[in-house]
Write a structure and sequence with these properties.
Layout (H helix, E strand, L loop, with lengths): L11 H10 L4 H14 L11 H10 L5 H11 L6 H12 L9 H19 L7 H5 L6 H10 L10 H10 L7 H11 L8 H11 L33
Helix pairs in contact: 1-10, 3-8, 5-6, 9-10, 9-11
Length: 240
């Protein structure tokens, strides 16, 4: 698989958004990502062993938890984990495996259809370009970014709710849409951290900078964070 690690040139939109929505200094941004890189091992919480399994798992993960997806794929992938296998399984037999995953009916149709399209247009392989990925049923920009990043090593940033929230809380951006957040981060993240940046922000948001009550007392980047309503450590909370 080809690996492309060149930093994409910021668009005029990215530059304009960055100038408007980047309250943190460049030095603070660098320190934040240096600190997160020291403490967080970039990884996915989804279970997969092949690029195709990753693609299917990410498609299934929309509007549901990784835990639910992992429970579904733990029974599905031993039965069918290739485009040919899922096409042979068909929507009707696929659906029971993913019934507990949100929007299961539509996702079953998408997974079967994208498997057929991979066979018809790509010889069963995962394409390495955004246009072909986003042409697959059920694959949007975020899913394409995950695949391009994790399979092909491209410096993309997949913006989910965690990444969007953390970027805004820290002061990396003050954006209102995932697309805008992506533009800002592509323009602001230090080059050496760009490939892993979305993992750092996602995992930080999932386990420390959580949605309802961020655990600021144990946040390694709190000293640079511009979030005004920082929380204090509860009396019964552990230090870690």
């Amino acid at each position: 698989m080809a690996t492309e690690r060149r930093r994409p040139a910021p668009s005029a939109k990215a530059v304009a958004v960055n100038q408007r929505f980047g309250p943190l200094s460049t030095q603070a941004v660098t320190r934040i990502f240096n600190e997160l890189a020291e403490r967080i091992v970039p990884r996915s919480d989804l279970n997969f062993s092949t690029p195709f399994e990753l693609l299917v798992a990410v498609v299934l993960s929309a509007h549901t938890t990784d835990r639910s997806v992992n429970a579904a794929t733990a029974t599905l992938f031993p039965v069918a984990n290739t485009p040919k296998g899922l096409v042979a399984l068909g929507v009707g037999k696929l659906l029971p495996y993913i019934r507990a995953v949100g929007l299961a009916n539509q996702k079953a149709r998408n997974v079967a259809a994208l498997s057929q399209q991979l066979l018809d247009l790509h010889g069963g392989s995962i394409p390495s370009d955004r246009e072909s990925l986003e042409a697959l049923p059920g694959v949007g920009r975020k899913t394409a970014n995950v695949v391009l990043n994790m399979v092909f090593g491209q410096p993309t940033i997949a913006v989910d709710t965690h990444v969007h929230r953390v970027a805004n809380r820290l002061g990396l951006s003050a954006s209102t849409t995932p697309e805008q957040t992506e533009e800002v981060l592509l323009a602001r993240v230090p080059r050496k951290h760009l490939v892993n940046a979305h993992h750092y922000l996602l995992l930080h948001g999932r386990y420390t900078c959580i949605a309802r009550r961020p655990e600021c007392w144990r946040c390694p980047v709190a000293r640079w964070c511009l979030f005004p309503a920082k929380t204090e450590r509860p009396a019964d909370a552990s230090e870690t």
